[in-house]
Amino acid sequence: MQYIPNILFIIALVAGVGYFIKNIRKVIRNIRLGKELDRSDNKKERFKNVAMIALGQSKMVRRPISGILHIVVYVGFLIINIEVLEIIIDGIFGTHRIFAFLGGAYDFLIGSFEILAFLVFVGVVLFWTRRNLIKLKRFWNPEMKGWPKNDGNIILYFEMVLMTLFLVMNASDLQLQELGADHYIKAGAYPISQFIAPLFDGMSETSLMFIERGAWWLHILGILVFLNYLYFSKHLHILLAFPNTYYGDLKPKGELDNLEAVTNEVKLMMDPTADPFAAPADDQAEGEPEKFGASDVTDLNWVQLLNSYTCTECGRCTSECPANQTGKKLSPRKIMMDTRDRLKEVGDNIDKNGSFVDDGKQLLNDYITPEELWACTSCNACVEACPVSISPLSIIIDMRRYLVMEESAAPSDLNNMMSNIENNGAPWPFNQMDRLNWSNE
Ligand code: SF4
Ligand code: SF4
After folding, report:
1. Which of 53, 165, 339, 364 satisfies CB 3.0 to 4.6 Å to 295 for a cystine?
2. Contact of 152 with 234, CB cutoff 8 Å
3. Mutate which of 143, 253, 321 to test ligand 1's pocket (most atoms within 8 Å of Cβ)?
């Protein structure tokens, strides 16, 4: 009988961590649906970016209020969870405050955790206020209706509850320590929960133990639920921000990748001795020519798909986007959200059928319209603003390439310009021979 709590704890831990790993494997499988892209270069600069952008949150603080609040919540939440290690050991072995043997260091740790928990709570309340009372514009764009809005709030409530449980657990523990209850050794410093403890004055040992154990269980179960909630939420960025910044694009902004398929075509045209059937080898094997650009998520590369899972839906990109500011339909945040939603849909399709079965849908038109794509000025403001090195522009460009090269569906202005380049070698509707006519005036 006495081992029942330990057994229940181990079952909850294995189930919680196991389900999380299962879902993370799905995320990795989905990201691998993207096309190959080599980002193994320049490791030093990549690690530096992880240290500065993901760990140091250097781009977050460009907007100081939200940046500093985010750092407090992020660092506080991570550090407090070191304490989860103690909870896990206690839960498995039935011990209580196993690290108490650290003495003064333990007091320092628990005291720091409490202060951080309080700061996280305050930070989260301020975040909630900005979203729901002050109603910052970027949290109320059309793409933020429904689940994205609720998701943003749910995680805030989660953190409020977890921090409260942590402090209530400590406050009741402190009372039990004062009463000299069996099992509750005197350990730890409680700079915050000492102010909550008086709420429990006069309670019996049994009632206090009920509160302490209740808060302890709810706290650890809440953390396991939180862990698994990440998969269904934009908060996957807590984990993916690190690989995403590592694999970010290091080229100067504005430098576009050439499409390999187009480069090969041009090389063939320039080389009269080339064998048109010799390259690329992959195409030959599949027996069909490579597609130009992207109409669905599987035409994008794996870094673009990783980008979509990493998007925090913060809306900094959209708030800087000149197209969005001037009332166009384009929102770079929506581009990332749509890409992720479609990728999840494709992943679910594979889970259901064993391999992808055509569902008659694609990213283009069913999620992202040509109107949105052509509203982009390619200014890179969204890329510059993103705190986790995401490039909505690279997806926009690849989808435009598909529209132009596969569908011949560029807007008429662009078609005119392209015809002019083809016929006149310049974007204007004049013959090359007339170029210098202006000097005769
Ligand atoms: S590159 Fe396009 S999507 Fe990004 S900010 Fe500029 S106009 Fe908006
Ligand atoms: S792409 Fe970047 S800036 Fe835009 S919403 Fe996502 S995380 Fe925020």
Report:
1. 364
2. yes
3. 321
pLDDT > 60? residue 283: no
- pLDDT value of position 133: 92
Ligand 2 atom closest to residue 313's alpha carbon, by position in its atom list: 5
Interval 18-36 mean pLDDT: 96
Pocket of ligand 2 (CB under 6 A): 311-317, 332-333, 336, 385-386, 388, 390, 392
Ligand that comes closest to the CA of residue 381: 1
- For 126-159, write each residue's pLDDT tens digit: 999 999 999 888 888 888 888 888 888 999 999 9
Dist. CA 89–CA 232, nearest whole Å: 28
Q: What is the CB-side half-sphere exposure of residue 91 using CA atoms within 13 A? A: 21
**Atom of ligand 2 lying closest to residue 315 CA:** 5
Nearest CA owner, ligand 1 atom 4: 382
109-128 pLDDT, tens per residue? 999 999 999 999 999 999 99
What's the rounded Cα separation, in Å, for the pair 387 and 61?
Answer: 9
- One-character DSSP codes across 6-32: HHHHHHHHHHHHHHHHHHHHHHHHHHT
Cα gap 408→39, rounded to integer Å? 31
Assigned token pair, 290: 């490579």
Q: What are the φ/ψ torsions at residue 339 (nearest 5 degrees)?
A: -60, -45
Closest CA to 194 of 104, 275, 115, 86: 115
Tens digit of pLDDT for each residue in 193-227?
999 999 998 899 999 999 999 999 999 999 999 99
Mutation choice for ligand 2 from 141, 149, 151, 317, CB with most ligand atoms inside 8 A: 317
Q: Domains of the chain by range and CATH? A: 63-246 (no CATH), 260-270+285-422 (1.10.1060)
Sequential DSSP letters for 76-128: HHHHHTTHHHHHHHHHHHT-SSGGGGGTHHHHHHHHHHHHHHHHHHHHHHHHH
Chain centre to alpha carbon of residue 321: 20
| Confidence bin at 321 (pLDDT 50/70/90) | very high
Pick the residue with more confidence: 266 or 272? 266
Mean pLDDT score of the chain: 90
HSE-up (13 A, CA, CB side) for residue 399:
30
Place of tokens 């794996």: 302
**Dihedrals phi, psi of 300, to nearest 5 degrees:** -85, 165
